[in-house]
Amino acid sequence: MAAKISKESKTPYVFLGRSGVKVSNITLGTVTFGEHQGRPGQSDEDAAHQIINRYVEWGGNFLDTADMYGLGNSETIIGKWLETQPRDKYIIATKCRCGMDLENNVNSVGLSRRHITESIDKSLQRLHTDFVDLYQAHHVDDGTPVEETLRTLDDLVRAGKIRYIGLSNVTGWRLSLLVETTKHLGLNPIISLQQQYSLVSRESELEPFQVCKAQGLGVLPWSPLKGGFLTGKVKRGLKPTEGRIGWVADNETKAKENAPLWKSFDDKSFDVLDVAEAIAKNHSKSVPQVAIRWLLQKDVVSSVIIGVRTLAQLDDNMGANGWSLTQQEMQQLDDVSAPPLAYPYNMVFSNNTDRVNPAANNFYVKSTSNLKSALNV
């Protein structure tokens, strides 16, 4: 039986970065829609539409997809749903960059003007819409000058095919370069960064998220449960065998015998899980709800992207709203999940512990105070 949705538990709406558009603070990611590279647990069209409808019941208005999800299958499924809905109620985000038909077309990849303009037209056709609200560069493309990419995205805004520009999976220095180049050229601004971020993947706090805070970009965390690790189903010292994470572990083991992905979950990762489980028990919540709630209470985050295979998983994830972690619990999770502090960060932070001067408007020092505390520097 589906969980009863109270007014208090419905998703609130927040501004997406410094833009004037409001989105639900939990985004429905759709990589699980349609057949995709042989992955288990993918949703067919009917199941996907049920998930979207239930997400809307929770108050959700933000759907995230990409052209490469199932090589267009995900966008097609969303498009068939969207054509029966009032378009102005929903925020639709998609992405381009990945190879779509490399066997037949060597230029069907990257962030060139040619590939971007071709990609957006095909995405709009699959999505049954005249525009997408957020168009994101899925990955970096070292084969195309950043000016070409940024001017093309700006042209698409001016043409009305996209409303806002976002990025995904970017290093700190490149993000800064892209933002400053956009300013220098007088182009429409970048408003968001979609980045892997969770209790066991916090590396982006050190550089990319500092740029986001300084420039007003909203962060859209993907894989908030680290591929299923933060569900609590993976046990210390044991290779996962069930569900998607079991499939990933099996395939990674076959592909990389010396360093399978599942072995990246070390003792520190399980220490994080132990703390999350204790906090979840204290609140009568699930571990996934605690992991998502931790992200929702980070000031750089606009909306957390979830991916689900069932209505039960959706209801559980959406239950991250309507309650809060205490300041002490946030600190506990920050402390146990703090990433190693390598050079030059250890030197930068330790040399500035007594040099915090609000009047100097030194953004970097002020904005890293919580991270410095968590890292004990």
Descriptive terms for the model:
377 residues, alpha/beta, TIM Barrel, eight-stranded parallel sheet, two-stranded antiparallel sheet, 14 helices, NADP_OxRdtase_dom, NADP-dependent oxidoreductase domain-containing protein, oxidoreductase, oxidoreductase activity
Question: What does it look like?
Answer:
There is one protein chain. The protein is α/β, with parallel strands linked by helices and 377 residues long. The chain has a domain at 13-231 and 286-323: Alpha-Beta Barrel (TIM Barrel), CATH 3.20.20. Helices cover 40% and strands 12% of the residues. The strands form two sheets. Strands 9-8-7-6-5-4-3-10 form an eight-stranded parallel sheet. A two-stranded antiparallel ribbon has the order 1-2. The model is unreliable at 256-260 (pLDDT under 50).
